[in-house]
Amino acid sequence: MDTNQPATPAHVRRLPEVIVNRIAAGEVIERPAAAVKELVENAIDAGARRLEVSLAGGGVDRIIVTDDGGGMSADDLALAVDRHCTSKLRDETLVHISTLGFRGEALPSIGAAARLCITSRPKGESGAWRIRVEGGKVSPVEPAAGAPGTSVVVEDLFFATPARRKFLKSARVEGRHAENVVRRLALAVPQTAFRFVLDERVLFDLPAQDMAARSAALLDASEADGFLEIAGERDGMTLSGFICPPSVHRSTANGQFMLVNGRPVVDPVLKTAVRVAYRRVIEPGRHPVVALTLTVPPDRVDVNVHPAKTELRFADEASVRSLVIGTIQRALEHGAGSVGVRPVLSSAPRQARIWYPPEKEAAPPVPAPAFHAPTPEGVRFAEGRLQFGDAPAARTLPPVAMPSSGAGWDAPAVNTAAPTQAMPTYVADGASAQPVAADHPLGAAIAQVLDTYILAVAADGSLVLVDQHAAHERLTHERLRAQFLSGHVQAQRLLVPDVVDLPRVQVELLLARQPTLEKLGVEIEAFGGDSVLVRALPAMLRSSDAVNLLRDLAEELEADENGAPDEMAALDGRLDAVIARMACHGSIRAGRRLSVEEMNALLRQMEETPRAGTCSHGRPTWLKLSKADLEKLFGRR
């Protein structure tokens, strides 16, 4: 056979409708979570006020979505499984889209790849109707029994497209993806009750709620005292929602829920803006927890970018980015104490708990002989003796002049007294307890533990613990950064200017931001062709390599064209790292004893300094233990 003979050209032919539907199904239904998303969106668009989702085998074996929405008649049911048939699209220009679905592809795609059964009964009708689709083959509509609303059953997903089924993950992984999808949709409609069951296990059952309660239930951020509510407006756009303090973070971005015009999205512009907003207050590699709602004029956002409808295209990405970053950063610039951070506590086992009688109804205790504990010479305790019959009591420090601000307290004076071999915890002598001012969230200092941690009592009686080194490190960091950014960052001219060769696009991006770079201490100029001449770098970055710095900065600007140089980790991150090192070395060290006045002055300055809830490395500077937390520790609840 002569292999050099030209092959006979194939004739163009029209593919069968079944094959077309199966190919299109691969774009819309890529995994069980995508099918769940489309079905739940249909239920929401139908006006459901109660919605239940049940999965078996991660959604591959079975998906059941039941709602109490408007339902469909027999004629509507027959059209619903045909491609590009929808009741939602009113605007043929695809601009003013007010529903979650509008493409008319979900049900036909699911029917082409699985066994689909839809039972629906319109409100006010006495009976329901049912239709079945298996691998693209549609059965006639038939009468059935059913409650008002719609119930969709999807079985044996991807049986008609085994190539797609072969690449699915385990049932546990697929089920987790589906759960994340339902959580995001549940946030979009807090007025709708949601119930999610995975392999006969109820993962959540949420009643109709307001946005705050729904956000708290879905984000599961119980370790924080509460959310920070945000609100911002810019160029006709509004941003609202709730964010967690920097001390609440996760290893992935699954805790970031974002809605645009009521539609759950996973948008790179919004994700980048959230990351930039938290960058200075969160540990590297960790992701914040947020629930954001962005409202944009319909003519300034395109939702018809991808069949999954999770990606958007904004007409003005720079404005969206600025709105998100600015709004979140303003909320994060609070001082320490406004939002508490509680450690995760595990309560004692039930069988080991002790029952305590009500304190108010308890009989008067029988006096017991005093027990005098032997104490080493020179060591003093808060109590000289302990009466076993006495009621629990606590003593505080004597009232001290608590400064209204931390001004003038940059570094406490060094205690020149020689350290004694005393106990690692010391408490000053006190008289009667004094009330703590309500406008001091961190309360009044009562002790210093291990010469490192400050103990304070807040106005509500909660116990506050402060890491003195981490706290003062943040205070010093903010002061140094304000000094550097109050004007131009001091630049150090290079003895021999460096020439950096870059792609033409990156050169143009750098030169377009030349004025901003000069304020940050980076002086560049065009050097012809695809080269940039670097004449100066920030004086703080003495040993930095100009070539690598410019390349990293150019790559980050190319990846995020709307970003500013002072938001990029290549430059601002390095400057911030130097400031953090300077702040760390210039802060009070662990193991150093502070006077009562110094401790209280530190607390007051923490309350007034932005981002004082975390240190320069993103670790918390203070923790809070409420009465409930202490009761958990001691097995009282």
Could you characterize what this model shows?
This protein has 637 residues and is an alpha+beta fold. The chain folds into three domains: 17-88 and 101-205, 2-Layer Sandwich (Heat Shock Protein 90), CATH 3.30.565; 211-333, 2-Layer Sandwich (Ribosomal Protein S5, domain 2); 439-636, Ribosomal Protein S8, Chain: A, domain 1 (2-Layer Sandwich), CATH 3.30.1370. The chain is 29% helix and 21% strand. It is built from 16 helices and 26 strands. The strands form six sheets. Strands 1, 2, 3, 4, 5, 6, 7, 8 and 9 form a nine-stranded mixed beta sheet that branches. A hairpin with a 4-residue loop joins strand 24 (523-526) and strand 25 (531-538). The longest helix is centred in the N-terminal third of the chain and has 18 residues, at 171-188. It is globular. Mean pLDDT is 75; it is low at 346-397 and 399-434.
Based on the model shown, name its key terms.
3 domains; 29% helix; Heat Shock Protein 90; 26 strands; 637 residues; Ribosomal Protein S8, Chain: A, domain 1; 9-stranded mixed β-sheet; globular; 16 helices; Ribosomal Protein S5, domain 2; 5-stranded mixed β-sheet; alpha+beta
Gyration radius (Cα, Å) is 32 Å
What's the CATH architecture of the largest domain? 2-Layer Sandwich
Structural class: alpha+beta
Determine the CATH superfamily of the largest domain: MutL, C-terminal domain, regulatory subdomain
* CATH C-level of the largest domain: Alpha Beta
Q: Tell me about the largest β-sheet.
A: 9 strands, mixed
| Regions with little confidence, pLDDT below 50 for 5+ residues | 346-397, 399-434
Shape assignment:
globular
Overall domain count: 3
Helix content: 25-40%
Give the strand content. Answer: 15-25%
- For the record, give the distance between the C-alpha atoms at the N and C termini, rounded to a whole number: 86 Å
Quote the CATH topology of the largest domain: Ribosomal Protein S8, Chain: A, domain 1
How many alpha or pi helices? 16
Please provide the count of β strands. Answer: 26
Report mean pLDDT, rounded to a whole number.
Answer: 75
